[in-house]
Amino acid sequence: MGMTPADSPVPADDPRFSGLLEAARALQPRTVALRRQLHKHPELGLRLPRSQAAVLHALEGLDLHVTKGESCDSVVAVLNGARPGPTVLLRGDMDALSMPEDSGLAFASEEPGRMHACGHDTHTAMLVSAARLLHSRREALAGRVVFMFQPGEEGHHGARHMIDEGVLQAGGRPVERALALHITATATSGVVTCRPGPIMASADAWLVRVTGRGGHGAMPFHAIDPVPAAAAMVGALQTMVTRRFSVFDPAVLTVGRITAGTTSNVIPETAELEGTLRTLSPEVRARALAEIPKVCEHLGAAHGCTTSFEVTTGYPPTRNDEAVAARVLELAGSVLGSRFGPVMADPLMAAEDFSYVAEQVPSTLAFLGACPPGVEPDEAPPNHSNRVHFDESAFAHGVAMYAAFALDTLR
Ligand SMILES: [Zn+2]
Ligand SMILES: [Zn+2]
């Protein structure tokens, strides 16, 4: 089997990429201004009219086909290249988190209880600048670029809404490759990194309710106490994970909440356990979600209790396509410089709804380091911290990376 052009090594002096990082740097004032504007006014969930309007405004004047979502405040912009060819999708998410901001930044959130602590403001701004950069090079594009501005990444399944509304067919042809960048404060600024295969986990929340019979704390033999049954479940669930699942296709199970009872001398009728399940494959996810209620039901029965089980379905695992991820690392090396493009050793057990795109299209989620100057990456306040800072100089690397991926796919 010979190498296809798309899989051949990227020559460092490939003319398609010449000046790409410089062009991204020239857009830096625009990127930073939009980012700071979004950062001041974070919006949550699927409805973010102000952010959507900012994106639409920033794209004005470019020859793009722009549509807005119906079930959510998304923006899809399609750039047609000069020649026919495949479709590539670039994603940037737009939503913030429900939390206070204590970053001390001059452009900190002006909306109480809301913060762009996951850096989605930076993703939106970088994607707008990538659209501008690629627009200026559309003569070099054979095919089309779909820019996916997505609300509702933080638990609201925004990507699924956009897929249901046709983002993977935007521009009239199925998307053939996709890239999402995620900024991180805990990696060296400007470094783009990812790994082939699993990169982020599934995340499902589950709840077990154990029901016994209430009574006097002095006479437990006249009651059916759900508390020891619930306590036994905590240990049994951890044992189940280590005995029933391979360490090479792992599951992480955390019981984050246990509640029962009201006072010291009353046996309550019910006890509750609530937890999260993280996995890296659909198979392990399905099997673990079947095993948790089984373990709890049988343990409960051994204690004379009944149990009920509820799942709040979260995101599927995010799996990077092997070839696309390898290509992204090569491109990072050649476009951003040879020290950019290390392979991540391990996946992260956090979740991302770009997984819905990656389930349908060969895709890669890659991380863009943005540790602020003067701080060690492993000491920087991480994403989701009320004190997180992102180094803005990394934005040019993100813009160049998005553009390089599109130029490479649409050669
Ligand atoms: Zn987040
Ligand atoms: Zn995020």
Number of helices: 10
- The count of strands amounts to 15
- Radius of gyration from CA coordinates: 24 Å
Mean pLDDT figure: 95
The top-level CATH class of the largest domain is Alpha Beta
In words, what does this structure look like?
This protein has two domains: 289 residues, 3-Layer(aba) Sandwich (Aminopeptidase), CATH 3.40.630; 111 residues, Alpha-Beta Plaits (2-Layer Sandwich). Helices cover 31% and strands 24% of the residues. It has ten helices and 15 strands. Helix 4 crosses helix 10, helix 6 packs antiparallel against helix 7 and helix 8 packs across helix 10. The two termini are 21 Å apart. One zinc ion binds next to loops.
Q: Could you name the key traits of this structure?
A:
single chain; 411 residues; alpha+beta; Aminopeptidase; Alpha-Beta Plaits; seven-stranded mixed beta sheet; 10 helices; disordered N terminus; binds zinc ion
In short:
The chain is of the alpha+beta class.
Topology summary:
Blueprint: H1 20-26, H2 28-40, H3 49-59, E1 65-68, E2 75-80, E3 83-93, H4 120-136, E4 142-150, H5 158-164, E5 175-184, E6 192-193, E7 197-200, E8 202-211, E9 215-216, H6 226-244, E10 251-260, E11 266-267, E12 270-279, H7 282-302, E13 306-312, E14 318-320, H8 322-336, H9 355-358, E15 363-369, H10 395-409
Parallel strand pairs: 3-4, 3-5, 5-15
Antiparallel strand pairs: 1-2, 2-4, 6-15, 7-14, 8-12, 8-13, 9-11, 10-12
Bound molecules: zinc ion (ZN) (2 copies).
One zinc ion binds next to loops.
